[in-house]
Amino acid sequence: MLKLRQLNKPILVAISRKSFIGATLNIPDPENRLNGTLSSTAIAVYNGAHLVRTHDVNEQILEMVKMAEEIRRNI
């Protein structure tokens, strides 16, 4: 992410339900990967992602992004 940030362009992440989440958490069904999606997306936002593409646009995702941004700004 650091190298991407050096380009001074917006960064889009599309982590939602990805196979690496399933492999890491041993969750074969993509529909059941919300927790992995939330944690991976939070790390990406904290590290500078500007845009998030997700399958699950809901309060959990919105609150997680808001918290990650706030933590990044204040630490």
UniProtKB/TrEMBL annotation:
GO molecular function: dihydropteroate synthase activity
Signal peptide: none
Pfam families per UniProt: Pterin_bind
Entry-linked SUPFAM superfamilies: Dihydropteroate synthetase-like
GO biological process per UniProt: tetrahydrofolate biosynthetic process
Domain Pterin-binding: 1-66
Protein name per the record: Pterin-binding domain-containing protein
Organism: marine sediment metagenome
